[in-house]
Amino acid sequence: MNEIDFLILDDDPVFCQTLARALQRRHFTCLQCHTIAAMTEQLTRHRVNRAVIDLKIGEDNGLQAIRTLIGLQPECEILMLTGFASIATAIDAIKAGALNYLPKPASADEILKAFDSNHTPDIPQQPPSVNRLEWEHIQRVLQENGGNISATARALNMHRRTLQRKLAKRPVQQ
User: Which residues have C-beta within 8 Å of that of residue 78, sequence separation ≥ 6?
Assistant: First the structure.
């Protein structure tokens, strides 16, 4: 089995390639996958030390990818990276076995720091905006309803189409 420093699992090939190049410049070996099935196949041939996994991989869920990876290689350190960051998904990622959780965009240096056990993340002193709190609440209720949009809309007393429009938007920054 070949030993690889980093597995990058993301459905965006440009992002995968950019991150892989940045890590290779720092003398790490990288393996890029764009689906959970491709990752599973590659893990039969390679031993991976660290993995950077996106939360949304096409129609698949990065949380399932974490569980699959831990099942195949339990010693692998995993970082969840997502453009749809929320407290609910961060908690789910850590419970699934991720070492850390970062919102996109994140640089290669930030990713490497996240794998460092001595690194403590910077916590902003300013409280989140009302819009950010709304986004967090919607994400938590969506997780509680297993990703079911209709059940989440009923729980939030909101029209389903309105909820879909809110979910289609990027998360509000702090």
Answer: 50, 51, 53, 66, 69, 70, 97, 98, 99
Q: Which of 32-46, 80-94, 107-121, 158-172 has the highest mean pLDDT?
A: 32-46
Q: How many helices (H) and strands (E) does the chain have?
A: 8, 7
Q: Please state, in angstroms and rounded to a whole number, the distance separating the CA atoms of residues 31 and 17.
A: 10
At 172 the pLDDT is 64
> The whole model's pTM is what?
0.71
* Domains in the chain, CATH or no CATH each: 2-115 (3.40.50.2300), 130-168 (1.10.10.60)
Sign of CA dihedral 104, 109, 115, 119: negative
Element (H, E) at 35: none
Instruction: Give the pLDDT band of residue 88 (cuts 50, 70, 90).
Output: confident
Task: HSE, CB side, 13 Å, CA atoms: give it for residue 65.
Answer: 32
**Is the separation of the CB atoms in 81 and 73 below 8 Å?**
no
Give CA separation, 141 vs 89, 144, 158, in Å.
Answer: 11, 5, 12
